[in-house]
Amino acid sequence: MKIRSISLKKMLTGLFAVSLFAASIISCDDLNRQKAKTENQEPATTSVEMARNMAIGWNLGNTLDATNWENKTNAGIATETEWGMPVTTEEMITAIKNAGFKTIRIPVSWHNHISDTNNYTIDFNWMARVKQIVDWAYTKNMCVIINIHHDNLAISKIKGNIGFAISNNADIQAQSKKYIEKIWTQIATEFFNYDNRLVFEVLNEPRDIGGEFKGNEWWTNSPDIMNIIKDYEQTAINAIRAVTGNENRFIMVPGYAASGSDGSMLALYKMPTDTAQDRLLLSAHAYSPYAFAMFDSNRSEDDTVFGNDDKASLDSIFSYLKSNYTDKGIGVVMGEASATDKENLSDRVAWATYYFTKAKEAGIPVVLWDNMVTASTPNSTDIGERHGYYNRRSNSWYFPTMIQAMMKAVYGENYTAQ
After folding, report:
1. Pair 356, 366: CB distance under 8 Å
2. Which of 109, 115, 178, 325 fits a 20 to 30 Å CA distance from 77?
3. 8 exposed, middle or buried (CB, 10 Å; 0-12, 13-18, 19+)?
4. Sign of torsion, CA 368 371 377 379?
5. Half-sphere exposure of 374 (CA within 13 A, CB side)
């Protein structure tokens, strides 16, 4: 249901802001600050504060990031529904906010929406569609994350195609950095006048696709790979900062595969440098504990029951992130997390309560991954990929008790959704 309400406080705030603007006394930034205060949220001045402001989020998964995995040029905005999602509407975004989510992450693939392959010019209609969905969330005073999502190609696929690849080949690195620089320059230009509630996440799960470089796609102990990722991220940061209006924007940077659960990999990753003060956040993902949250091993008991060993695993993850990042003044965003539907709702509720509680204690917002697939979805044979929570077709929640558990972990036992 769409709910619209205007409180006396908001009316007075709006009139006050307009009068000051007419008198040329107040800046646009001050207007944004005043708007933020109407939602009881002070604008962030540090990465840790920004993480705290993001509170809890939701992913518009398998939508603007959808691709047929072929490198089509300028595939058009119809790709939004290519992975089975309905066309995104403002009503959906309103429902997400009304459930209690303060942040929306909008994963975006750009490589098959390029109209000029020389300069990697983003198709006008695609950029406009991205902007429309961003605006639906942004104007509701939500924090919004946009990124480069499925543009990471295997080394064997990069030649003659659009995107980037993790490789020690100088030509591939040059092509990759050119692509990253051109895409982020265009995004930063399009959104230059948005305040810090719009966050840029430079890459999504950067990795050696297919293990063609070092032999393993999802894990590495290679400092060489980490340095390549850092170099690519530095290219993105420099491009963003070079565009007026983005000098102090918050930027999320991931380590290898954006792993938030492997301390040994994170220890090898060194965040890039920045001309802005305290505006970088670590981007992490953790579908954890993996055996419970994703992996299907013939439906064994360990895969479906959330037990004490699973709690210990989450204790370790969030303790590491808190000690090595948050406590050291580096904000962390858990940009993807979920527990797949193995028809074990009570255990998933227990997982949600524990996971989001530990994240809250560590000062880390969790952004729930949602691909609208559950055990009841026709042909959902991949048990590890049932991460559906919000039914966008019926504007309803598949598992309201899980959402309630997440919100209470973040906001307290007395929290009630709108």
Report:
1. yes
2. 178
3. exposed
4. negative
5. 14
Q: Which residues, 6+ apart, have CB-to-CB distance to 24 below 8 Å?
A: none
In this predicted model, what pLDDT tens digit does every residue of 89-112 receive, in sequence order? 999 999 999 999 999 999 999 999
The rounded distance, in Å, linking the Cα atoms of 44 and 42 is 6
Which is the catalytic residue, given 205, 233, 247, 343? 205
Strand partners, 285: 259, 336
Q: Contact at 8 Å (CB) between 147 and 107? A: yes
Residue carrying the six token digits 């170099």: 231
Per the CB < 8 A criterion, the answer to whether 395 and 99 are in contact is no
Judged against a pLDDT cut of 70, whether residue 371 lies above it is answered with yes
Contacts of 416 (CB under 8 A, 6+ apart): none
Q: At what angle do helices 223-241 and 170-190 cross, to 10 degrees?
A: 30
Displacement of CA 129 from its chain's centroid (Å):
18
Q: Which of 80, 181, 201, 336 is catalytic?
A: 336
Distance of alpha carbon 276 from alpha carbon 273, whole angstroms: 9
| 18, HSE (Cβ side, Cα atoms, 13 Å) | 6
Tokens, residue 69: 């995995």
The two structure tokens encoding residue 238? 């420099």
Q: In this structure, what is the dihedral angle of CA atoms 323, 327, 329, 334, given to the nearest 10 degrees?
A: 60
* Tokens linked to 250: 């918050």
Q: Which residues contact 85 (CB under 8 A, 6 or more apart)?
A: 62, 63, 66, 372, 392
Going by pLDDT thresholds of 50, 70 and 90, the confidence category of residue 11 is very low
User: 292, 274, 293, 290: which is closest to 282 by C-alpha?
Assistant: 274
Rounded to the nearest 10 degrees, what angle do helices 8-22 and 28-38 cross at?
170
Contact 140, 97 (CB under 8 A): yes
**Six-digit token pair at 158?**
């990069």
The rounded distance, in Å, linking the Cα atoms of 221 and 269 is 10
> Please, which residues have CB within 8 angstroms of residue 107's CB and are 6 or more apart in sequence?
59, 60, 61, 63, 64, 65, 147, 149, 150, 204
> Between 90-98 and 124-138, two packed helices, what is the crossing angle to 10 degrees?
30
375 Cβ neighbours under 8 A, 6+ residues apart: 341, 342, 343, 383, 386
Q: Which is more confidently placed, 50 or 15?
A: 50
The CA R_g of the chain, rounded to the nearest whole Å, is 21
Tell me which amino acid residue 140 is: K
Q: Establish whether 336 is a catalytic residue.
A: yes
Give residue 18's pLDDT.
Answer: 31
